[in-house]
Design goal:
Layout (H helix, E strand, L loop, with lengths): L6 E8 L14 E8 L2 E6 L8 E4 L4 E4 L1 E6 L15 H15 L2 H17 L2 E6 L6 H11 L2 E4 L2 E2 L15 H15 L5 E7 L7 H14 L2 E6 L3 H11 L3 H7 L7 E5 L5 H10 L2 E4 L1 H6 L7 H6 L4 E3 L12 H15 L7 H7 L2 H6 L16 E4 L15 H7 L5 E6 L2 E5 L2 E2 L4 H19 L4
Parallel strand pairs: 1-4, 1-5, 6-7, 7-8, 8-10, 9-10, 10-11, 11-12, 12-13, 13-14
Antiparallel strand pairs: 1-2, 2-3, 5-15, 15-16, 16-17, 17-18
């Protein structure tokens, strides 16, 4: 696309995601979308301008690209290697040894796999938490992807007896790595750096408070895990004699720039605290099921005005990075937990787009509107397996029935990066070969060779 003249995407069903909470999809209508300099400049019945590239929309549904709030790109290489375990065993016997065994080359392969899979499924924005080391490699691959990405190294200075020797850093080293990432990547292109304490049990009180101060000083976001699994909560209470979210608040880590992954088990007092501090929740339903963690109370969070985003989490605890899978899981689980209709399909779709953007403090993605980034996912909903849908009411088909095969094209900043379901510039066969070459060394170094 020539940004000087822009482009016109003609004849699509526009799903702007800009309506009120009761009808978040907004005015779904058939029309056109104009892009210039990577941003949306107009929507509606538009006439091509001289020199403008015209793209046939063919009646597809155009949505803002999905926003995934919580992903571990460094873990994608480990898909299928940590199945059927509860959270703490999953971390101690598989994930920590595998992450510590990564080198820069294997981390790069994992990141390449991650961003290709995210784009193929319509995700154009993601927040990732990486391992203690090699986070710079993920940031480099994020830049290459063209996506909007918030990322950072996880902070771990507590020498847990289950950690591989040498994995934990000093508090000073942990924040020094974050500062190096900030200087190298923050605000460069579409990359931001977050301060990322892994979770309460792996971070000392001193590092937690220093991390909060560092984030405040440099106006960085805070990304951490919270209140995920009953065994984890019991360990937190035993050590701190307070509930999980209260510990984070006491350390200075809550606030409008903070997003907490999971928040499955929270008390009334903790929910009040989340709302009062304007902290966000990042829901990972498939992971919470697979690790036996539970069902997060999203309907209650929504009633309290707490911003909720959605994420696939890591491939070893999902085992997909699919926003469409997470949408379906989230909506079905809330029907079970809160009752049918208490968190309907349209609410799930909102959490995957504008809600996810709000949860991450992003103002230029998550909606189709003038001034927003031209990050657009085009769905072909003509498949009879989706039913004969009302084109103006696509939420049910998208949330309950659609899969990645219905993602026809994806645009980043007005440029096509996925066409006909194929990620341009990526070769799945080559990625598989690279993964197959990298994994044996990681397994050997982790003591998990098979």
């Amino acid at each position: 696309m020539n940004d000087a003249t822009g482009a016109l995407l003609q004849d699509v069903w526009l799903v702007p995601m800009d309506g009120p909470d009761a009808a978040p999809l907004g005015d779904v209508r058939r029309g056109d979308l104009r892009v210039r300099d990577g941003r949306i400049v107009a929507l509606g019945a538009l006439v091509p301008e001289p020199g403008e590239r015209v793209i046939a929309g063919r009646g597809r549904h155009a949505l803002p690209g999905f926003v995934q709030g919580h992903v571990h790109a460094t873990q994608t290489l480990f898909r299928g290697l940590a199945d059927d375990l509860p959270l703490l065993d999953w971390l101690r016997t598989r994930i920590w040894p595998l992450e510590h065994a990564h080198d820069a080359a294997s981390t790069r392969v994992s990141a390449e796999l991650t961003f290709a899979e995210l784009l193929a499924g319509g995700t154009t924005t993601a927040q990732t938490m990486e391992s203690v080391r090699h986070a710079e490699v993920v940031a480099e691959e994020a830049q290459r992807s063209g996506m909007t990405v918030i990322t950072g190294n996880c902070l771990m200075d507590e020498a847990d007896p289950h950690l591989p020797p040498g994995m934990a850093t000093s508090a000073a080293e942990a924040l020094a790595i974050t500062d190096e990432l900030r200087r190298a990547f923050h605000g460069h292109g579409r990359i931001s750096i977050a301060v990322s304490p892994r979770f309460v049990l792996s971070v000392s009180e001193g590092l937690a408070r220093d991390a909060a101060a560092f984030a405040q000083q440099h106006d960085l976001r805070v990304h951490t895990h919270a209140a995920e699994h009953p065994a984890e909560l019991a360990a937190v209470r035993a050590r701190f004699h307070r509930d999980y979210v209260q510990v984070l608040h006491g350390q200075g880590l809550l606030g409008a720039r903070t997003a907490l992954a999971h928040c499955v088990h929270t008390s009334e007092a903790e929910r009040d605290l989340l709302a009062a501090t304007r902290s966000s929740v990042l829901h990972c339903p498939s992971t919470n099921l697979k690790l036996g963690s539970g069902i997060a109370p999203l309907a209650d969070y929504r009633r309290r005005g707490i911003a909720v985003g959605i994420g696939a989490d890591g491939a070893p605890c999902n085992n997909r990075l699919s926003m469409l899978t997470e949408l379906r899981q989230a909506a079905l689980l809330q029907a079970l937990d809160a009752g049918p209709g208490q968190w309907p399909a349209a609410a799930a779709l909102a959490a995957a787009t504008r809600g996810g953007a709000a949860a991450l403090g992003l103002t230029d993605v998550g909606q189709l509107a003038p001034g927003k980034r031209a990050d657009v996912v085009l769905f072909d909903l003509q498949d009879p397996r989706l039913g004969v849908i009302d084109a103006q009411r696509p939420a049910s088909a998208l949330v309950y029935a659609a899969s990645e095969r219905h993602v026809d094209a994806v645009m980043l900043g007005g440029e096509f990066v996925v066409e006909g379901g194929r990620v341009l510039g990526s070769d799945w066969h080559e990625l598989r070969r690279a993964a197959a070459a990298a994994l044996p060394g990681v397994l050997r170094r982790a003591g998990l060779a098979r």
